[in-house]
Amino acid sequence: MEALRGFWGDRYRDPLSASDRDPGCHHRRYLTRGKTRHCDPADKTGTLTYGRPSLSDILCAPGFRETDVLFYAAGLEQYSRHPLAQAVLQAALSREVKAPIPTDVAERPGEGLSGTIDGRHVLITGRNSLQKHRDLNRLPPIEAGLECVVLIEGRFAALFRFHDEPRPDSSSFIRHLGPSHQAKEVILLSGDRQREVEHMARFVGIEQIHAGKTPEEKLKLVQETSVHARTLFVGDGINDAPAMLAATASVALGGQSSDVVSEAADAVVLDSSLRRVDELIHIARRTYSIAMQSAIGGMLLSVLGMGLAAAGYLPPLFGAIAQEVIDLAAVVNALRVTLPMKQMSDF
Fold first, then answer.
1. What pTM was computed for the model?
2. How far apart are CA 167 and CA 52, in angstroms?
3. Closest by alpha carbon to 93, among 71, 116, 117, 69?
4. Are the C-beta atoms of residues 164 and 185 closer than 8 Å to each other?
């Protein structure tokens, strides 16, 4: 029997459809096939965690003050939808640092967030993007947790460290994918650092991880996996959009997802909840099952009627009536998809 493989799919380094009646899901265009899938790839930040991290440390380089760096960073983060952007803005608000208005703001997947503030170029990116930078050796040592690097005029200005709590239901959700949805493999695919990804994988029970991946590398991995298996990608960041398009089906988690991510995903779960993702799987499986019942059942009954008519057992008038009854039965059966489900989630 076929089973599901999946990916949990970020500037910071550290598949399915829904019924329109479900207020937590926004329907796109994909209907899951049957009861089985192969692979579940998933992102980490905002997916397996709450996605509401807090700024815990600001480690400034010599010559830079904490309030000044926070001033420039908050100015850029106003225009980002990444989960860590809100953490920076909240930190600035609590310190009564007013965010300025930047110009030339750009957020390129895998490169970071950049812009100009008061005539100075500011870049917020990940440690991995600075492998050839002259200030790489000046960065503080790697620790567990999320982080980003702030560069001002090309110079290392500060390192921001964040703390984000894993969702308490992440572990139970991952464990139930195999028994309940015949998931063959679950992959944690992230742009975060190896140490942070390994810590999260141990917490939720995922064995296969891919850390420090750029959007291009995520895309390649999902493409390679999708050749041999049906895949479901769950993510929420703009860096996940290419991989979402390559997966058999994809889900964008959280109503704060960017327009790019929402358009790339086959379904958007408006509530940032893994339980909603599970409900989405159940809705899709039920919808597919009912659709197949109506389609195949209607065709089989039509073929039977034609056989009876060809053998002379069914007069033309009764044959026409029988066909109308068959069509009506198929439509009525399809309407069952609008009825409430007894069980929307099973974990």
1. 0.63
2. 11
3. 71
4. no
